[in-house]
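Worked problem 6 (solution included).
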Amino acid sequence: MKQNITTSARVLRRNLAQSTRRPINLAPVTSTSLTRTSILSTSSIPTSRQFTTTSHAFSKASSETAAPGTIFVNLQFETLTEMFEKTCKHHANNKALGTRNGSTFEWITFTELWQKVEKTRTILAELGINKEDKVAIISNNRTEWAIFNYAILQRNSAIVPMYEAQLEKDWEYIINDSDSKVVVVANEKIYEKVKEYINKIGKVQHVICLDAPEDKPYSYKYWLKKVEASPAAPILPVTSEDICSIIYTSGTTGRPKGVELVHRNIVSNIITGKELVKDYIHNQTSLAFLPWAHIYGQSTELHSMISAGCAIAIVPNREQILECISIVKPTLMFSVPILFNKVYDGVNAAMKAQSPIVRFLYHLALRTARERNHRLEFNQPVGAFLNWRWKVLDKIVLKKVRERLGGNLQ
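Solution. The predicted structure is:
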């Protein structure tokens, strides 16, 4: 039975009255099911010929060979594999991914990210991963998630992401349904459950554990040591029509259903999204807390930020979001309404404990900011008095609220 599934990415930004509101709507990934319970579409996205034209037109504004540091460089690419190689070369010394370590974040550059992907690609080749194979991963966001993702793509294989919090029966079903040959797991607790799948569930032949110590033959560290002196495995040819990811639904209305996405699905989102935000996508630092196992977080955050040479600080878990904001001071965040609702509710709760004059100034600041933003959005004159009132209230009220979000959000 065919299904129509549309995954749309929307970026909700509340500027707290610092500048004109700019609603951002990233292009949807649209797919139509063909096989298994998965989906693949050629009807709602450009054909290969159309895509090449779109990509070419998009990159007229500047050359992809422009010197590093250029405000906005439109790298031309038709696959995620091509995107990753080009962005690592152009943004070699930029920060790529950050991992929290106590009160700081430890960063790797795009050059270091490329080197780690190269080693992991060699591991996958040793494990027999080739064209059209599937590799499942059960892990929350982390540097190794991104490393495995791009290494899998370089072997012209597809990643099948799952959540650590999912039920084991869902892992088993998805791994079996997707024909995954290798399963990557975050920790040994998950490994102890999934190791039983080898040669029993679907096509599973190996399970690799990210957190296991180096002396364990199933650990990622063990395999990194094993291929340390080996020549890098080749990057296999990839086309825009090759499957890059199979993302399964939550299964709340039945068994999870797999959504096959080809490179062109996600690349079209990246190109459209970067065109909409090209004026301020350069030199950004984001805070990643949306799961990359979901298409929204994976396409609009991970791949889009990587393609722009921007830095991604990874939040270990959602309970640490506010702590990480104060450490990283991000300039850009991809979010869902629940985060902004929590901030809004938190600020309003704090205001209830303030004096009447403070509460009055707070609500006056919000009204002033809304009126100013409305006028700017519809190209109406702001007026000297309204602009003066906004500047004063922004300085004494709204600036303090923005500081709760790191103070750098653009």
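Discussion: The first helix runs from residue 48 to 58.
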